[in-house]
Structures are given as C-alpha cells and as structure tokens.
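ingest -> validate -> predict -> emit
validate: passed (alphabet ok, no gaps, 197 aa)
predict: started
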Amino acid sequence: MIINLQNGIEFQNMDIFNLEGAAAIIFYFTIYSLIGWLLENSYNFFTKREFFKPNFLFGPFKPMYGFTPVLLVYLISPETNWVVVILLCSLIPSMVEYLTGSLLQRLFNRQWWDYSNSPLQLHGHICLPFSVCWSILSLLCIKWIHPAIVSMYGGIEPYWAWIWSAVGLYFLADLVLAIRKHSLQDLITDEPTNPIQ
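emit:
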C-alpha cells in the first residue's frame, strides 16, 4: 500500500520563481485554505454545534491549510522515497501548526486553538492526536486530493491567468486588515479601565 502511495502521486513541481509557478501556488493556496476553512468549521459544528469558528482572516480561508499542502507538493517529487514522503507528511503539518500558533500568540497575545487539555501536547499549539490526523490527511492529500486539484487547475488555467494576481492582492489586503483588527482588539483589551466616569 505504501509503495502504491508513491506511485499514485501526481505533482506539478514547476519553477516557483516565474509567473506560471506563482499563479499555481496562489491557486493551490486558495483551494486548500478554503477546504481548511470548511473542514475546521464542520468539525466545530459536529463538536460544538456552531458552524462558524473564530477566524484570523475576514474571508473563508485558513492559511495554515493552504501553506501545508503547498509545501508538501513542492518538497516531494515522484522520485522521493516513500519513507521521506511519510516523514514529511508527519512533520510539515505539525511544524506549520506550531509555528503559526506560536506566532499568533506572540503577536496578538491570543490563542486561536488550545490543545492544553489534550494528551502529549506542546504549549497548547500541537498535540499527538491531532498531529496523527494531520499526517493522515496530508497523505490522503498527496495521494488523491492534489491530483484532482492539479486536473482542475489544468482546466481553468487560461482563466486563472487573468485573475490570480487579483486573488493574491485580496489575500494581502485581508491579511493587512486582519492584523489591524486584531492589533486594535489588543489595544482595547489592554486599556486600563477608568472607574471614575
């Protein structure tokens, strides 16, 4: 089964330093960030009966879920040994999750998720049960989901060539506005209250 995993991998390891490569990265990032948003909110609905979970960005995108598959599909090639594939699918998601959680906590003094009550956790940012889930999802992504996304991209690439830069600007604007929003929230919550009014 593991050898079949490698045989089924379809990649698009194009040069990321040209316009076509940048367009593909933005496309994959957009699709996977949207899938991540749907996945997290669905999980939130099944566990807490609320579909909308607090999001860092304004739009329906979870950047962690965009970065991880993009890193994986550009780090793994068809020649990559299956042991390395499994190792990368196990390490990259947890590293991205830990770095993201640490960075968000350091910059905005807030934790968007907290695994403190989970077994084998590290600073509440990652834990073994979810790391195992991310590893399995990453392998499924590499084996089945990404080849389908590559096919979809091949079908819309001529149209995407016209809009990908606008989508990239959208993400940049959303990021800037989100940073401003969360920074202002920190200022409001850090202000001392004046008891004399």
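DSSP finds five helices and two strands in the chain.
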